[in-house]
Design a protein that fits this description.
Layout: E1 6-8, E2 12-14, H1 19-24, E3 33-38, E4 41-46, E5 54-58, H2 66-75, E6 80-84, H3 88-101, E7 105-110, E8 114-119, H4 127-147, H5 153-171, H6 178-201, H7 209-229, H8 247-253, H9 258-285
Parallel strand pairs: 5-6
Antiparallel strand pairs: 1-2, 3-4, 6-8, 7-8
Helix pairs in contact: 2-3, 4-5, 4-6, 4-7, 5-6, 6-9, 7-9, 8-9
C-alpha cells in the first residue's frame, strides 16, 4: 500500500491512513496513535478508545475456579460483570475475593440469585507508577516482618491487590507492545516473591542462624533489584548483582532445611528475573 506525502504548512508533511484500519480501531480526528521510529520504518500503532467491557457469568459453572476466573476478568479490564447463581454461598465467596485481592470492584446490586459487580474506580494514568513502586515497598516490608516475627498476611493481601491493579492497567495497554509485556512479567514476578515470603513466614519460628543469614542476603539482593530497576542507567550498577550469581548454588549446599532452600532459591531466582526484564527494557528504550 502506497501513500503520497502531502505538504502542510511550511515544514510538515502528512500522510492519510486507510479508512478500513481507522474504522477497525474506532479512530477519529483528535484520537491518539503511537509512532515509533524503526529505521527505515515508522510504525504507527492504534491506541484503542476505552470502552465499557461487560460480561455475564453463571457462578455455579465456575465455582471450583471462582477466584481465578474473577481475577482474570478484572485483569483483562472488564468493567461490569452480571452474575447469576443458585447457591447463595457463592456470592459470599465473591465478596471475599473482591475485598481480599481487588482494587476498584464493588457489588453494586445483589438479589436472591443475581448480582452486578462494577468497576467504581477505574485506573488513572498517574496511578500506575505509584502502585508499581508500592509493590516493591510492600515486599520490602514482608522481608522485615519475617525478621521481626510480625504478621505479614495483610501485607501479602496488599501485594495481591497492587499486582492485580497493575496487571489490569497493562492488559488495557498491550497495544504498546513488548515494553508493556515485560512490565507485566515484572508484576507477575513480584506477586510470586510475595507468595514465597508468606510461605517462609509460616516457618520463621524454626529458622536456624544460617537460614536467617540467607534470608538477609535474599533481602539485600531484592533491594538491589529495586535500586537497579528505578535507575535511568541500570547497566551502570547492575554489576553489583554479580556477587549473587552463585548464591543459589551456595544455598543448596548449605545446611538449611530443604523447605527453606526451596523458598529462598525461588526468591533469588525471581529477583534475578526482575533484573533481566529491566535490562531488556533498557535495550527497548534505546
Amino acid at each position: 500500500m502506497k501513500r503520497k506525502l502531502v505538504k502542510q504548512g511550511n515544514n510538515a508533511l502528512t500522510v492519510t491512513l486507510p479508512k478500513k484500519w481507522l474504522d477497525k480501531y474506532n479512530l477519529k480526528a483528535g484520537n491518539e496513535v503511537f509512532i515509533k521510529e524503526h529505521e527505515p520504518e515508522i510504525i504507527i500503532t492504534a491506541k484503542p478508545v476505552d470502552k465499557e467491557k461487560k460480561e455475564t457469568i453463571y457462578l455455579d459453572k465456575y465455582k471450583n475456579i471462582l477466584q481465578k476466573y474473577i481475577h482474570s476478568l478484572y485483569r483483562q479490564g472488564v468493567t461490569e460483570i452480571e452474575i447469576t447463581y443458585s447457591d447463595p454461598q457463592l456470592i459470599n465467596q465473591v465478596h471475599k475475593i473482591i475485598s481480599k485481592n481487588i482494587i476498584g470492584y464493588e457489588i453494586i446490586e445483589q438479589h436472591k440469585n443475581k448480582a452486578i459487580i462494577k468497576s467504581v474506580a477505574e485506573i488513572k494514568e498517574g496511578n500506575y507508577d505509584i502502585m508499581f513502586r508500592r509493590i516493591f515497598r510492600i515486599n520490602n516490608s514482608m522481608f522485615e516482618s519475617i525478621e521481626n516475627q510480625e504478621s505479614l498476611e495483610s501485607l501479602e493481601k496488599t501485594n495481591n491487590k497492587l499486582c492485580n491493579y497493575c496487571r489490569r492497567y497493562i492488559s488495557k495497554r498491550l497495544y504498546e507492545g513488548q515494553t508493556a509485556l515485560l512490565n507485566y512479567l515484572v508484576i507477575e514476578t513480584q506477586e510470586r516473591i510475595g507468595d514465597e515470603l508468606l510461605f517462609l513466614k509460616k516457618l520463621s519460628n524454626k529458622f536456624s542462624s544460617t537460614e536467617i543469614n540467607y534470608l538477609k542476603i535474599a533481602k539485600e539482593f531484592y533491594e538491589l533489584s529495586q535500586k537497579i530497576y528505578f535507575n535511568d542507567n541500570p547497566h551502570e550498577i547492575s554489576n553489583e548483582a554479580i556477587k549473587y550469581n552463585d548464591m543459589i548454588d551456595k544455598l543448596l549446599k548449605s545446611d538449611c532445611s530443604d523447605v527453606i532452600k526451596h523458598y529462598l532459591s525461588n526468591i533469588f531466582h525471581h529477583t534475578g528475573q526482575i533484573l533481566s526484564y529491566r535490562l531488556q527494557l533498557m535495550f527497548l528504550d534505546k
